[in-house]
Amino acid sequence: xxxxxxxxxxxxxxxxxxxxxxxxxxxTQGVSFHLEGxxxxxxxRWQSTGEFLEPSDIWRMLGRFFDTQMDSQQAxxxxxxxxNTIAEVADVVILTNLVDERRDKRAAxxxxxxxxxxxxxxxGPKGPALQKIIAEHAPTKALFIDDLAQHHASxxxxxxxxxxxxxxxxxxxxHAIDCAHKAGHAHSRIDRWDEAxxxxxxxxxxxx
Length: 208
Fold this sequence. Notes:
This protein has helices at residues 18-28, 55-68, 79-86, 103-112, 127-137, 149-158, 171-174, 180-183, 193-205; strands spanning 5-8, 31-33, 44-46, 91-96, 118-121, 142-146, 163-166, 188-189. The chain is of the alpha/beta class. It has two domains: 5-16 and 74-205, HAD superfamily/HAD-like (Rossmann fold); 18-72, no CATH class. The strands form two sheets. The protein has a six-stranded parallel beta sheet with strand order 5-4-1-6-7-8, sandwiched between helices. It has a two-stranded antiparallel sheet with strand order 2-3. Helix 4 links the parallel strand 4 (91-96) and strand 5 (118-121). Helix 3 (79-86) runs parallel beside helix 9 (193-205) and helix 5 packs across helix 6.
């Protein structure tokens, strides 16, 4: 029987990413990292010169991190327990902006911490990918969780009936990122899983 569907992001929603990325860059790659919001273009400087990394170097560092350091990513507080509680009453899938070749590694990474869910990879705005996922699953209702405002805007535009929760579980950046709720693209902004879980369960119980 068809159930509700949760479509959740991974980095900064289920797993810390910026914190271990910063530690790795500064300890091993000769790069200083100071992120304001999600402005990666001006977050990384070479320690030797103080110059910003070129975009090609930024992408290379991100790729190297996900190829070699995914084991350093720890679960956001409460994420594993909350997702597994939600999975008792809804189907859960992960929609993550990684290249397709890393899908299986991300699924294994999540399974290792106790989250067993189908993983969809995506590049760019998430609205089109989410639209396809909903068409595939045909759920009774759908709820989207992500830490980036632009993805909520994309989903709101293409599938406005989907409930949208803006959640950023990384304190290092949560205060600085654009808020999708304030912009009118998310139904709520909650950055702690102990507060997000009851809100999500209540949304799932609501009738149209």
